[in-house]
Amino acid sequence: RATLRRASSAVATLTELDVQHFASVVGAGHAITDRAALEPYNTDWMGKYRGESRLALRPGSTQEVSRILAHCNAQRLPVVPQGGNTGLVGGSVPIADEVVLSLSRMNKILSLDERAGSLTCEAGCVLEALQEYVWARGFTMPLDLGAKGSCQIGGNISTNAGGPRFPRYRSPREI
Fold this sequence. Notes:
The protein is an alpha/beta fold and 175 residues long. The chain has helices at 16-26, 35-42, 62-75, 127-135, 153-158, 166-169; strands spanning 2-3, 31-32, 49-50, 56-57, 79-82, 99-102, 109-113, 118-121. The strands form 3 sheets. Strands 2-4-6-5 form a 4-stranded mixed sheet. The protein has a two-stranded parallel ribbon with strand order 1-3.
């Protein structure tokens, strides 16, 4: 188990006023500050990496994400985006006390253009739910991973995830 430390001190420290602001943006129930409730956000699923975030935010829309990031930028608060937290290299685990931006509530399928074979969804959609949705409509999801029941499409795309369908369909960036 490794505890990582941030190299730069050019960032600010989270204050109670920041937490109150974020709670007003996402709703009090989606601004997580309880130490026990923060544990899954601070540790990767293999238990190899550990952060010390004191706040995890669960926005429900791109507008909320925009407001969160605008405030973090203005206040110089570090942020780590987090999807399903299923990666093997600790990329979604906070290094120290960053604000965790969990996209798990942003899990809506917005549209499927059956003519073009194009799916539009939010970043927090679980891969397996997308696979089931398109399969029921006669399509195949080009991406398949062992963590499909918990990994999220935003993380899959941002990390250019592969999987067993890679030889046929290529990487997410090539699809």
